[in-house]
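Continuing from the previous page...

OK, I double-checked the sequence for Lipoprotein against my notes and this is the correct one:
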Amino acid sequence: MNGRRKGALAGAALLGAALLLTGCAKPDRSEIVTWTDEHGRACTGVAVVDSEDSDREVTSIDCDYPPEGRQPGRATSRPLPD
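Thanks. Re-ran it with the corrected sequence; updated C-alpha cells here:
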C-alpha cells in the first residue's frame, strides 16, 4: 500500500471517529429564566446551558421596573417551548 493511500485511510478513520463521537454528545439546552436585579427590576432572558459542564450563558436580556405598587415575582427557570 502506498503512502498516499495509507494517509487517506487514516484521515477517513479519524473523520469517522470524530463523527461518531459528535453524534453521541448530548445537545445543549435553552431555558427561559427570570430574576430580579440589584435595582429591583424584573428581568427575563434566555439561558443556553452547556451539556458538558452545565455552564450557562444568558442572552436576550430584557429588564423593566414592575408597575407602581407591585413587586417582581420569584426567580424561575423553565425550558423554552418547542
